[in-house]
Each structure stands twice: as C-alpha cells, then as structure tokens.
Amino acid sequence: MPSVGTETAAAHGYVIRGGAAGKRRLELLGRSLWPTTCQLLKRTGFGESMTCLDLGCGGGDVTVGIARIAGPSGRVVGIDLDAVKLQAASEEAARQGLRIEFRQANVYEWSERAVYDRIYTRFLLTHLPTPLGAVERMRCALRSGGVLVVEDIDFSGSFCHPPSPAFERYQQLYREVVRKRGADADIGPKLHSLLTQAGLLDVKIDLVHPFHLDGEAKEMALVTLVNIADAVIAEGLATASELDAVIDELDKYTRRTDTILSYPRVFQAWGRRA
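RE: above sequence
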C-alpha cells in the first residue's frame, strides 16, 4: 500500500513533490499523454530545424519528443526549477543521442526576447499565482510569427465510475491545496482568454479527456495523491492518518477490474506572435 512519505513538497508553492518521486510521476504522465501531445505538436507546426523551448519541462519527456521532431539541425531548450529532474532529463537525452540544452530557472525570473520559433508548456500555468505574466514572457520570447502551445488542466472535470468516496476526497484535496497555494487547478477553460490577453493572435483551443480501465495510467490519481500528501498536511487540510486511509481506499479501488478512473480534462491552446 502506498503511504504518506516524508519528502517535502517542491519549493515556490508547487504542491506536488519534486525530486526523484516527482520525476517518476511525470514519467508515467508523459507515457500516457504522449500520443495526444505529439498530435498537438505536429498540428501546431513543430518541425525540423526549429528553435524550440519546453518551459517547465520537468523530467524532459516532452522535450525529448520535441528534439526528435526538430532533428539534428534544430535547437531545443528545456527549462525547469527542479535540478534533480533536469539532471535525469539530461542523462536520458544523452543516452538517446539527442542534443538538448537543459537549464535551471524560475519562470518568474526567466526572460528572453525573440529567440524561439515554438514554445511549449504543460501543466505549468495551473501552479502559478500570476499565469498571465508567464504567458506574456513566453510571448516575448517568441520570434515574429512564432507559436506558443499550452496544455493545462481542469481538475473539476476528473471522474470515476462507479462512485468512490476516496476519489472524491482526492479531487477535493487537490483543488483545495492548489487554491491554498494561490494557484488554479481548473485553469484549463481560461487558456483561450489568457493567450488572447497576452497579445497572441489566432488563438485556438481544443480538449482531450483521458480515462483508463486498466494499465499503469489508471494509477495516476493514486500516484498524484501520494505526491501531494506533504502539501496537504502542511496546509492543514488532512492529517497523515486520514491521508493514509484515503490512499489505502483509493489503492484498492484502482486495482479493481470494474472501475474507470479519468485524468483531469486537458485543455490545449495555442496562439501566434504577431
């Protein structure tokens, strides 16, 4: 049975554990979402020889995919705050023979002007108290005609079947701890207006909603609950013993063969710099 650990939640208000535990979660997320993310990258014009940025790249799962698309004549950069994830990402890129420049930076301190043909970011804005400022900085970092591509969540859209009190408690705790940290777990539907307000043109939006009957991807709710435990306790939203009970119940529910568990709804938005 998974249980509440002792690792601290990531710095700067991020509610999900960083380091090795956080990277394992991101690897699971990356494997399950890659098919729809890959379609999005191709749809929005990622191509060979481009200069591309993955902002908030985590363990570099999407960054590696972008590097394959850009090819040896392209330039790909991945930026994240978590040094442990960046080191692992760098090692994986080297293992695959891909040239990727990984940098450690805080999104609020990062600033570049007219550098990139394409910028991609996934599940970053949902953790930021002022997401519009980050979108504006990304717009400034695009070259003329460059495209910003964003994927982010609407956690209120998560569902399971049949009903599960443990899943409902997980959904409640996640949304509440993100709110306590000043961010927005339901930012997905707001992406269109955020990109428009930031000055991007021809803004488009789409939606995917993964759900699973079996396989490793079905465990994402359970893994996420374990990885937000420290933040939940720190914010006084639950005790360690209560969380252990919820985790145990959700673990049993996940292992059943008659249950369906979804991810949050994932909104995809993109727009062009004039």
